[in-house]
Specification:
Elements (H helix, E strand, L loop, with lengths): L3 H12 L5 H9 L10 E3 L9 H10 L2 E4 L10 E4 L4 E7 L5 E8 L6 E4 L16 E5 L2 H10 L6 E5 L7 H8 L6 E5 L2
Parallel strand pairs: 7-8, 7-9
Antiparallel strand pairs: 1-4, 2-3, 4-5, 5-6
C-alpha cells in the first residue's frame, strides 16, 4: 500500500508531465517553480484501476470519499478525490515524514484551498539553530517566501494552517534553541 510519501511522489511526477500544461501555467502566474520546491499536481486519477482494497486504503488516508455521483457501470463506486485537479504541497512531521497534504484547486471559479488533515507543518519543522523565523499566513505565502531567496542561512519559515497558529506550531517554536526573532508575514 502506498504511503502519503509515495502518493505525493506520484503528484510530483504529475506536475512534470507534458499534459500538465494548466497547472504549470498556474504556478508560473504565481511565480512558483516546481523544479526548486516540492510541488505536485493531483489530476484526480491516482485511484483509477486500483483494487477495492487499495481504494479502501486511500479512503483511510482521507484521499477518497465515497460519493453518490452517477457511474457508468453498476458495479463501479463513485468517489470524491481530495485536491482533485489541484496543486499539492506536502506537510511534514518533526521527523521529516509527510503526514498531510495541502491542495489548491486552481481551476475552480474561486480557487479552493484544502488540507487533508490537521497534522504537519509546511515546509518543515525549523532547525533547532534557527535564529529568525517567518510565520506565513498560508502555504502559498511560505512557498513564495522560499522562492524569493531572501531568507538567510539560519532563517526558517512555517506556514500557518488557514491563517491559524496551532499547537504544532507552538511545539515547533519551543524546539528552537537559538531563536532571536519571529516575523509574522501578513498579506
Amino acid at each position: 500500500m502506498k504511503s502519503l510519501e509515495e502518493i505525493f511522489q506520484s503528484f510530483e511526477t504529475g506536475i512534470r508531465s507534458a499534459k500538465a500544461v494548466k497547472p504549470k501555467k498556474y504556478l508560473e502566474n504565481i511565480e512558483l517553480d516546481y523544479s526548486t520546491q516540492r510541488i505536485g499536481f493531483n489530476s484526480g486519477q491516482f485511484h483509477h484501476r486500483a483494487t477495492p482494497e487499495i481504494k479502501k486504503h486511500y479512503e483511510n488516508l482521507g484521499l477518497l470519499t465515497k460519493s453518490n455521483a452517477a457511474v457508468r457501470e453498476e458495479d463501479m463506486e463513485a468517489y470524491t478525490v481530495f485536491g482533485r485537479y489541484g496543486i499539492v504541497f506536502p506537510l511534514l512531521d518533526s521527523t521529516g515524514r509527510i503526514v498531510n497534504l495541502y491542495a489548491i484547486r486552481f481551476a475552480m471559479a474561486s480557487p479552493i484551498e484544502q488540507y487533508l488533515n490537521d497534522d504537519g507543518i509546511f515546509p518543515s519543522y525549523p532547525a533547532p539553530n534557527t535564529k529568525r523565523l517567518f510565520l506565513a499566513h498560508s502555504v502559498i505565502d511560505a512557498a513564495s517566501l522560499i522562492q524569493s531567496r531572501i531568507m538567510e542561512n539560519r532563517d526558517a519559515v512555517m506556514a500557518l494552517h488557514n491563517g491559524k497558529f496551532t499547537e504544532m506550531h507552538h511545539k515547533a517554536i519551543q524546539s528552537i534553541t537559538e531563536l532571536k526573532e519571529i516575523l509574522l508575514i501578513k498579506y
